[in-house]
What we know:
four-stranded antiparallel sheet
Amino acid sequence: MDIVLRAVVAYVFIIFMLRIIGRRELSTLGASDLVLLVVMGDLIQNGVTQSDQSITGIFLAVSTIAILTLAMSLLTFKFRRARTLIEGVPLILFENGRPIEPNLRAERITIEEVAEEARQQGIEQLDDIRWCVLEPSGKLSFIKSQ
């Protein structure tokens, strides 16, 4: 039972840390981000199973994480409030060609990063953007002005 409890605590901690890291960073994993996630996984595994190297301990830890992932999926599917808390909401970064500075700062996104993404989506100038939205997945969506 100790392994299950530690797995639950580890799962909640991972979800919390991923929310702190930010949406944009998760959608554009760099080398250091990947290393962080791998090392974090290894460190958490050590904390969950401690010195228990048994097959039973592995099955308990993996099963607990899998059940929590399924439960989180069902929770966010059925309850809007849970979805908002766990996954976040879309955030408007540009409106009518003008940046919304507090939102950009909150997500640590520069105007240059928005411009780069806009160019990749075929938008030549930021003035051509009616809306730029940071989706909960970390992707930028653009709606062009007419």
